[in-house]
Amino acid sequence: MAWAIENPAALGEALLRHMVLVGLALLISLAIALPLGIWSARRPRAYTAVLLATGLLYTVPALALFALLVPFMGLGTAPAVTAIVLYSLLVLTRNVAVGLQTLPGEVLEAADGMGYGRWRRLLAIELPLAAPVIVAGVRLTVVTQVSVATVGAFIGAGGLGDLIFQGITQDIGEKVLAGAVAASALAVLADEALRRLERRLAASQGGEP
Amino acid sequence: MPDVIGWIWSHTALVGRTAQEHAILSAVALLLVLATSLPLGFGLARTGRPATLVVAAANTLRTVPSLALLVIMLPILGTGFLPSVVALTLYGLPAVLLNTIVGLREVDADVVEAARGQGLSEAQILRDVTIPLALPVILAGIRTAAVQIVSAATLAVFIGGGGLGELISSGLALMDMAQLTAGALLVALFAIATELTLGTLQRSFARRFGAPA
């Protein structure tokens, strides 16, 4: 770990850059997946089509997805974030839709009976109740994004993958390891943090009638 | 759109070699995953604490980024086929192991009890009741692992393991868009074909064994 100790600034910068990439990709993918999941949840045909399309994207290996965007978008942050977003849509959209689909019918009827409009019911009842399933999707997505972003360094996105690729080119094994260990730690920590959030959300709902 | 077809047509030997490397790398890793995680899963499913520990370890292993797992092998095993296969095996292992343990555990205890009451031996129960009922979940794990391995094998090129990732890697280095796109499309097709083949296999198995008698 000598490299990491001698180059804390470079490591910190790569880590920060990695988190910015993931944060940006997560915001954009939520902005797409939330409406898409809500819209398709009660439309079986649309839901099947959405799962098929996003599932196809999810099956494409990360390096291939990055490579496919290069002829159209060049190198850098834009194609990298685009690829990370495309990769995230299946899990996020599916969990939003499943979260809404599995709500008990009585709850929805009760809300209708209390005079809730469609939007108010969605925002005040359905989404909060679906939150644990949605957060479970966010957890899986963030872990995937941390992993995919590592490969993004290949097309010039920077981040912890940069340390890995530079380390390989410069033949500095410690730099490679620093990048790999930091990326793994980031994934494990994000997973654990979101797992706790998920559990807390589920527990807070368990107490409700 | 770069001339992908033209590029593949004029580089059939290179495409053939890298595709073969990719297939061998993936197949060996998947076989090693099956050879380790199936017996481990069967052995652990009925245990308490050991299973909990292994499940926690597998869950952590599952979060490690594929590129990180591959390059962590460099200082231990160097470059080439062996470190690539070891990394890919570790990468695919959690999916099969976790699904085997979960699949076996979810088999209804009442069903097993009923079979025991009918005088079936433990071996018969395992063969005729437990395994058929757990099979859909185990097969789903194998399918996930296979697709993950084919996908991550693309990154083996970075530790000298070869495979179709080589086309992508040298395509970008040379800024040869035809080669880059050809590599990406071939890898994508490989992964999608694996997913579809194993998905079909999984469904036909589920129909044959999983259907209620």
UniProtKB/TrEMBL annotation, chain A:
Membrane topology term: Multi-pass membrane protein
Entry keyword Protease: no
Short name of one Pfam family: BPD_transp_1
UniProt subcellular location: Cell membrane
GO biological process: glycine betaine transport; transmembrane transport
Main location: membrane
Ranges for domain ABC transmembrane type-1: 15-198
Cellular-component GO terms for this entry: plasma membrane
Transmembrane segment boundaries: 20-39, 46-66, 72-92
Similarity section: Belongs to the binding-protein-dependent transport system permease family.
Name of this protein: ABC transporter permease
Protein's organism: Enterovirga aerilata
TrEMBL record, chain B:
One GO term describing the cellular component: plasma membrane
PROSITE patterns named among the record's database cross-references: ABC_TM1
InterPro entries with a match to the protein in the record: ABC_transp_perm/SBD, MetI-like, MetI-like_sf
Gene Ontology BP terms: glycine betaine transport; transmembrane transport
Alphabetized UniProt keyword annotations: Membrane, Transmembrane, Transmembrane helix, Transport
Membrane topology, from the record: Multi-pass membrane protein
Pfam families (alphabetical): BPD_transp_1
Membrane-crossing residue ranges in chain numbering: 23-45, 66-91, 129-146, 153-174, 180-198
Location within or outside the cell: Cell membrane
Main location: membrane
Family the UniProt entry places it in: Belongs to the binding-protein-dependent transport system permease family.
PANTHER family: GLYCINE BETAINE/L-PROLINE TRANSPORT SYSTEM PERMEASE PROTEIN PROW, OSMOPROTECTANT IMPORT PERMEASE PROTEIN OSMW
Name listed for the protein in its UniProt record: ABC transporter permease
Organism whose genome encodes this protein: Enterovirga aerilata
